[in-house]
Predict the 3D structure of the following.
Amino acid sequence: MLELYILLIFMIVAAVVAVEIKDLLSSVVAVGAVGLALSIAFLVLKAPDVAITQLVVEILCLIILIRATLRKDLPFSTSGRWFLNTLITVIFISLFLMVAAKCFKDLPEFGYPTMKVASTYLKEGFEKTGAANIVASVILDYRAYDTLGEATVLFTAVIGVLAIVRRIGRKKVGEKVRDEDEPR
Amino acid sequence: MLVYLLCLLLFSIGIYCILRKRNIIKIIVGVIISEYAVNMFFVLVAYRMEGRSPVFSPESQIENMVDALPQAVVLTAIVIGLATTALLIALAMRIYDKYGTFDITKIRELRG
């Protein structure tokens, strides 16, 4: 499991770089490094379908982010109550980490899952659904409503994006429009 | 157990970025990082020692498959994460058009 540790530490380092670097485009590229390392980590953890999806989604996400940040850089302002804000944030996060570390004791040991539900899928999945890939049989057969809900969320998000990026709604008769709202 | 803690550390970095940074793009970056950490955690919980990927093959009988259910859940979550990220970025670009800045402290006054 050494490669998993190496990947996780690489992801943490890349995430710190993404958070702390000044240049926005470099930050976005560092997020891309995190996502691609995550994709490889999924492969190591024996989840090939998830790895493929992660790769595609990561590249799409990066394209959108770069489109948003290109030639729109601005210097950071660290004025104001810098120390107090950082202190409160660090206290909150360390409190959260302590509570979560306590909760990890109740989880099953890494590498030995309980597999109460999945054992049924693994046993009967092939006979009942005819799909050789168990993940596909779960998302498209056992939990097909889940996938339908996912499609609904996607559709809603697309409608939201369209509504946001559209310059202006329908004009009333005789309504004056300011120059900056004019569709280009 | 150390793997879980490292994964949680990644999540904490994302949370720190959301809480502390003022640039909207940085906040989106924090959301993305914490989302990756949660996805990673689900797949970590599903892993089984010496496991095989949950795909049957016609030749050999495979006994020790990893847990397929969290993988299916994560597959859904990744795509939804892309949709929400796109929505966030659309909002950020609209704010930039309106106010000419990504700094959240500068976006004070409301303009219709």
